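User: Hand in any protein.

Assistant:
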Amino acid sequence: MKQAQRQLAGSAPTVRPPPVHDGPLNDEDVKWLLPSREGVALHGEYVSQLLAGALGQAGLPMNPPVQIASVANGKVTLSGQRADLARIEQLCNQNPELNSAICNLQVMAAGVPAMDESGDYIRDWYRARNDAERMAVYRHYASRMPAPSKVEISLGGSAVSVSVNGEAMPQMTA
């Protein structure tokens, strides 16, 4: 990891890893932990850093990009049009830090629609003027339980691109 950070030091500032402590959280920690567009951008930038370091060490180029096909049971499966796809998939699965970062990115991105829906529910609940309106809000949102999110992740180039249910998530910029 430190070598990957050193390799990237000349090209862009490094993004710190997500917090792994169990003490009080600061504002920066919360950005990493909430399933938000900003959280997806932070995790995407972190994955991009780790991937660039791993590919650099293996002598592989960042382009053309590859897509995350799945992260079932913590195993990253890739798809794309690269001859070295199997080697990149192996790197993603053998590097525990990179593997964990990719899995975290997938989970974070999948949670964004539900977080948005929760915010809408809370806002509508507090706007309701009486119990009847609050029950109508509850019934409305209970009937709309979101389907699981479709997350698409593309690794390559100078950034990680993420879309959730067709919506492009923002990317961090240095």
Observations:
- Confidence is low (pLDDT under 50) at residues 1-10.
